[in-house]
Design a protein that fits this description.
alpha/beta; globular; 2,3-Dihydroxybiphenyl 1,2-Dioxygenase, domain 1; 8 strands; 2 helices
């Protein structure tokens, strides 16, 4: 159902460096870009992530309660992506672990302050 998620940035270069490395670890690549935005994903027919400068020209801010969840196919990949996010300047919001009911997840914030998680089920 989700086509893409958009996160605002005030520093496109920093965001591009962070997400190139982080999402590259998950097998994604840049799908589309301009000086205003970059889309990463596997294909435009699957959900993707976009980082953009706000259209209204105002500073980008984070949303309280907003979170982007990135699905992985194993706990090892969750661990690896969470560690990668931290090594790239992200901050820990919850170490990877079993959250109950077969839901394994790790939480972090990107350098801009947006909250993300990586998870797998089963």
């Amino acid at each position: 159902m989700i086509g893409y998620v958009t996160l605002g940035t005030n520093d496109m270069s920093r965001a591009a460096t962070f997400y190139d490395a982080l999402l590259g670890e998950a097998g994604a690549k840049r799908l589309m870009e301009t000086e205003r935005y970059i889309f990463w994903g596997v294909s435009m027919q699957q959900p993707s992530l976009c980082v953009t400068k706000p259209f209204d020209g105002e500073p980008a801010t984070i949303g309280n309660g907003d979170m982007v969840a990135l699905v992985m196919d194993s706990a090892a990949k969750v661990d690896r992506l969470h560690a990668k996010a931290l090594s790239l300047g992200g901050s820990d919001e919850g170490a990877p672990g079993d959250r109950g009911g077969g839901f394994y997840a790790g939480y972090f914030r990107d350098p801009e302050g947006h909250k993300l998680n990586v998870f797998c089920t089963g």
